[in-house]
Write a structure and sequence with these properties.
CATH topology of one domain: Rossmann fold
Oligomer: single chain
Order of helices and strands: HHEEHHEHEHEEHEHEHEH
Helix content: 25-40%
Strand content: 5-15%
Shape: globular
Structural class: alpha/beta
CATH class of one domain: Alpha Beta
Radius of gyration: 30 Å
Mean pLDDT: 80
CATH architecture of one domain: 3-Layer(aba) Sandwich
Length: 296
């Protein structure tokens, strides 16, 4: 007996296949007949409670149990939300983009700048505070903007010196469970949710770092800069460690352990300069010759 025309035709490429055709739980066994009670299964595949099939959500293809029975427009127009969408990864991408846009917009015309890092716990009476304050003043007088992490301690001191010299005093703050406010000596501040966006701003808009005694955050910025120098991602970025008594132990360990183990090369240790003199620190960070990118 001749086959029916319907049996000879291949599957319609526009057809949205139902659960029965995917042989998934909830669908009926595959037959030649349409599911009971439904003349056109395609019209119900994207409706809550319908049998699951195949749908496109923008560029994303969802099949079978991955079909959630709603559309993007439907979710957008719902008037009752629990706010959870604010914490979803796609929305985070937009927030991240916004942070870069705001940072670039605020800092693009900053001009020459030097970043000063150090502990947020440095008290105003400490010698390190007064030294950072003097550095900020000297840099401002030399025509450089001074960038800090925006917090208290050494960061406040650097901003204070720049502000007192009527220079540009910049703070790049970060959302933390503590140190949440900008210090009072900042005249241009940008606050970030994400550390990585903030790091880009330091490295893009500063021409060098002065690194004073500090903790993990200070170490993080130091080794970020050294990694980019070592790998040739930046070619002119002087890094000055201030306070030989504080940094000597770290440098000795790097030479005796890291270098001796073959994990860095001898020239890597030359990527930093060390001084105890405020004026020399300013001179080194503003007059250092460009580093040449190299491959190990």
């Amino acid at each position: 007996m001749a086959m029916k025309d319907e049996e000879l035709r291949g599957p319609d490429p526009a057809h949205v296949r139902s659960a029965s055709e995917w042989n998934i739980p909830g669908g009926s066994a595959t037959t030649d007949e349409p599911a009971s009670g439904s003349a056109d299964q395609t019209s119900a595949d994207n409706v809550p409670g319908a049998q699951l099939g195949q749908v496109f959500a923008g560029p994303v293809l969802r099949r079978g149990a991955e079909v959630d029975g709603s559309t993007t427009d439907q979710r957008l127009l719902e008037s009752h939300h629990d706010g959870s969408w604010l914490h979803s990864d796609p929305w985070r991408v937009m927030r991240i983009q916004a942070e870069f846009v705001e940072g670039f917009g605020a800092l693009e015309e900053l001009g020459p700048a030097i970043a000063i890092f150090g502990s947020a716990r440095t008290p105003a009476r400490a010698k390190a505070y007064q030294q950072a304050r003097q550095m900020g003043r000297l840099l401002a007088e030399a025509g450089y903007a001074v960038i800090s992490g925006g917090g208290p301690g050494t960061m406040e001191a650097a901003n204070r010196g720049a502000s007192e010299a009527h220079g540009r005093s910049v703070g790049l703050g970060i959302e933390l469970p503590f140190e949440s406010s900008m210090n009072q000596y900042i005249n241009l501040g940008v606050h970030f949710r994400y550390f990585f966006a903030r790091k880009v701003m330091f490295l893009k808009y500063a021409q060098g770092f002065i690194v004073m005694p500090g903790g993990f955050g200070t170490f993080d910025e130091l080794f970020e800069a050294l990694t980019l120098l070592q790998t040739g991602k930046v070619s002119h970025f002087p890094v000055v460690l201030f306070g030989s008594s504080y940094w000597t132990g770290l440098l000795d360990w790097m030479r005796e352990q890291v270098l001796a183990s073959g994990n860095i090369s001898e020239p890597d240790l030359d990527l930093v300069a060390v001084t105890d003199d405020v004026e020399e620190a300013v001179r080194l960070v503003t007059q250092a010759p460009p580093f040449e990118s190299r491959e190990d």
